[in-house]
Amino acid sequence: MIRLLVLLCLLACPTPLLGGALPPGPKASVASVVRAVTPGVVNIATKRVESIEVPAAVDPVLQEFFEIPNQRLKRETTSAGSGVIIDAEGGLVLTNEHVVRGASLIEVTTKDGRRFRAQLVGRDKATDVAVLRIKADNLTAVPLGDIRTLEVGDFVLAVGNPFGLGQTVTSGIVSATGRAGLGIEGYEDFIQTDASINPGNSGGALVTLDGRLVGLNTAILSKSGASHGIGFAIPIDMAHRVMAQLVVSGEVHRGQIGVSIRSPTRGAAGAEIVSVETASPAALAGLRKGDVIVAIDGRDISGPAQLRALLGVIPAGSEVDIRYHRGGAPMQARLRVQIARMIPSERKVR
Question: Would residue 137 show up in a list of annotated catalytic residues for this protein?
């Protein structure tokens, strides 16, 4: 009798979906999210002129005998990537720096088939972020999400142009946040996901199930070059901070607070301060050696690399909130970030 009652209950009561993330209805589908987001994701085609060495031309005897005038030849190559429309009115498109690196021609194709020649506003190799501008009407921007609310286990969609096939949507979850130390970029604070990301997805959108952009797909961990379920995306707050600086001045002003840091000795999360520079923002705010920074502007800090990455894209002169622990006691400070160094961008237009 008890088994019968349990069976009847299972048949009569709707089964809750994992995490409650998928929308209710007669079928589990994210079609409505896809319809809203995909118009804001574009395909990017580039052309590059490469210089290649001719083996025979290197030999001076062969060069003289055959009267070969040059030792190098030029060839044109093409490649494909993805991008996300951030500002529909201004025609601003966010993508990866490696997608447009060295390109002599950049073309953007929207979902409705319109093709535009893009201008490179600026690019930042250290974060692998680039900004393009297209002159077009009736564009659709993807709304930005709040990375601070993103959790491991959240469902996400990856939208891009894998292998040049055209716009493609894959799904998965957030596998980890704050991934760093991978040697992919100079400043790393990756979102890790198992949503399939393949060559050509670079610069595409990573969105939540409410249609918010939380990351810019940028790399995979794979020996074969195909997706093995370990993909990485640049958090949108980092990409957007870089974009804002590139649009205004075409260069990135790195920030710092005047501390040397390391991983906490007991293996906890955060960044332990090893030393504080005299008269630095950290010193003026009262931070000391031994303090462990655990959050900056509401973003939890997993380790020193993540703190460096976050500070590295905050414009000099900005004020930030720092949460830290001193002897186990939680403390808080507000300080003004100072300029660390300037990295000029290969900026083409204002």
Answer: no
